[in-house]
Amino acid sequence: MNKENSITLQISIFYLFIFILLNIFVLFQFKVSYLIELVLIDILLILFYIFLLKKLKVLTIQKEKELINSRNLFLRNIMHELKTPITKGKIVTNSFDDTKKRTVLSSVFNRLEFLLNEFTKIEELTSGFIKLEIKSYRAVDLIDESLDMLLLNSSNSNINLKINKDLKIDVDFKLFSSALKNLIDNAIKYNTNDKIEIIVDKNSIEIKNKGKKLKKDINTYYKAFNRDYEKSNDVLGLGLFISNSIIKLHNYKLEYKFKNNYHLFQIVF
Predict the structure, then answer these.
(1) Is the pLDDT of residue 127 over 80?
(2) Cα torsion for 263, 122, 126, 231, to the nearest 10°?
(3) Bridge partners of 258?
(4) Are residues 225 and 263 in the same domain?
(5) Which of 242, 225, 223, 250 is nearest to 149 (CA)?
(6) Which InterPro entries does the UniProt entry name for this protein (predicted)?
(7) Domains in the chain, number
(8) What is the DSSP letter of 213?
(9) Distances (CA, A) of 18 to 14, 21, 22, 186
(10) Candidate from 79-83, 148-152, 163-167 with smallest mean pLDDT
(11) Are residues 143 and 225 in the same domain?
């Protein structure tokens, strides 16, 4: 039981106790002649009790907002402070003559930068302050952008793309492309066949790959830091969480099916 519920329960028990005692006292002392007064007192007590509960709720909400704002400010400051040494580290690394050392250090700083970007996305999505810049974009441009993030292109031999090039979707370009990127990346990593399929129509975007059946319910894999599905060294188990959160922000829905040994992730508009 959290602190708010505990305080509410204590107040409820206290007023219930007073309420019962007062009723017993009035009934035994004054009998029925003061029944109207008793009812009025009861009503006043109930109204006062409701007022206290509302006041408690307002104070609790204000406290929660203060804590959330403090947390967000703290996280943003940390992430901002980390960016400078990572950037400087990458610059210094490029000046090394030793190729092996340069490669190792470059990999380390790239990894740190990747982690920082992932945590930045998490902070933005969970803070509740993110603002979408919704515009109408061609679906093919969104797919191309997501593939560019993966250093791929639509003509890649491992991708079978079926799309109406004139179809447009109302989205935040940067965020939605990132959601697509994560879904496509997972499909490629866990594909047991030669190709993945990306199918786009007026109602949905479907990403399909052959693979083994998931061991748990799909909602388990939508949680942050779940590495049962995302076991690659390049991820923290955040990909599906980030994609699902972004899709929800757009008031779209991410649906999942496993059919004939194929994983089907579908963004429904």
Answers:
(1) no
(2) 40
(3) 263
(4) yes
(5) 242
(6) ArsS-like (IPR047994), HATPase_C_sf (IPR036890), HATPase_dom (IPR003594), His_kinase_dom (IPR005467), HisK_dim/P_sf (IPR036097), HssS/ArlS-like (IPR050398)
(7) 2
(8) P
(9) 6, 5, 6, 61
(10) 79-83
(11) yes
